[in-house]
Backbone:
C-alpha cells in the first residue's frame, strides 16, 4: 500500500479486501480522520495497530482487518472510535488482553476469533462486561483464543439483539450461566471445546429462535433437559 494514499484527506472508504497486499499499513492512511470504512480483510498485511488509532480515526463505523498477519495488542484507544458498528480483528496474531470497549455504544459485530488473545486467567473476559453498553450488539465471536476463567454473569446483560454468541475453543471453565436465557433472539450458541462443567441449564429451552446449539467437548454432566424439545428451529445439536 503506497504511503502517498495518506494524502487523500477527503477519503471516506478504504476497501482493498481479498487481494495479496503485504507489508504494513502506511501511517498516513491510519491518520485519515475522514475515514468511515476501513476494510483490508483477506490480505497478507503485517504490523501492529498504532496506540492512538482511536483518536486518529474518530469517524470509523467499520474497521475490518481480519485474515492478515497483524500482531501485538489491541490498543485501548479503540474504544474512542465511538461510531464503530463493525469491529473485525479475527484470524491474525493479536495477543495479550482485550481492552475495555465501553464507549462503543453503536457496535453490532465484534469478531475477534482465531487470535492469541487471553492469558488463561480469570480477568481475560472483563471486556465482555464493557460490551453491555452496546445495546445493538448482534454478534460476539471470540472463539479460538486463550481466554480463561469463568463466563462472567454480566453476559446476561448483553443486548437482547444478540443473535450469535461463540466462545468455543478457549480455556473457559465453570458453569454455563443461567443468565444466557436473556438472549431471546439468539440463533447460534456455541461454547464447545472449553472446560465447562456442571449441568445443562434447563432454561436453554427458552431460546425459541435457536438454530445452532454446540456445547460438546466440555465436562458437562447430568441429564439432557427435556426443555430442549421446545427448540423447534434447531438444526444443529452438538452435546
Residues:
Amino acid at each position: 500500500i503506497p504511503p502517498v494514499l495518506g494524502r487523500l484527506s477527503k477519503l471516506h472508504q478504504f476497501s482493498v479486501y481479498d487481494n495479496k497486499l503485504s507489508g504494513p499499513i502506511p501511517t498516513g492512511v491510519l491518520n485519515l480522520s475522514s475515514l468511515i470504512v476501513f476494510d483490508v480483510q483477506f490480505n497478507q498485511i503485517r504490523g501492529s495497530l498504532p496506540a492512538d488509532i482511536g483518536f486518529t480515526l474518530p469517524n470509523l463505523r467499520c474497521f475490518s482487518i481480519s485474515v492478515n498477519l497483524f500482531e501485538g495488542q489491541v490498543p485501548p484507544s479503540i474504544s474512542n472510535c465511538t461510531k464503530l458498528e463493525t469491529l473485525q480483528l479475527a484470524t491474525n496474531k493479536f495477543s495479550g488482553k482485550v481492552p475495555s470497549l465501553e464507549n462503543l455504544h453503536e457496535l453490532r459485530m465484534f469478531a475477534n476469533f482465531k487470535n492469541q488473545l487471553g492469558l488463561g486467567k480469570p480477568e481475560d473476559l472483563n471486556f465482555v462486561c464493557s460490551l453491555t453498553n452496546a445495546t445493538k450488539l448482534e454478534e460476539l465471536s471470540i472463539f479460538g483464543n486463550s481466554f480463561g476463567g469463568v463466563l462472567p454473569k454480566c453476559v446476561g446483560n448483553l443486548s437482547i439483539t444478540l443473535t450469535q454468541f461463540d466462545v468455543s475453543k478457549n480455556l473457559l471453565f465453570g458453569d454455563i450461566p443461567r443468565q444466557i436465557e436473556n438472549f431471546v433472539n439468539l440463533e447460534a450458541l456455541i461454547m464447545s471445546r472449553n472446560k465447562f462443567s456442571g449441568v445443562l441449564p434447563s432454561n436453554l429451552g427458552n431460546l425459541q429462535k435457536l438454530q445452532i446449539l454446540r456445547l460438546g467437548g466440555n465436562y458437562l454432566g447430568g441429564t439432557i433437559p427435556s426443555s430442549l424439545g421446545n427448540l423447534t428451529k434447531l438444526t444443529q445439536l452438538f452435546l
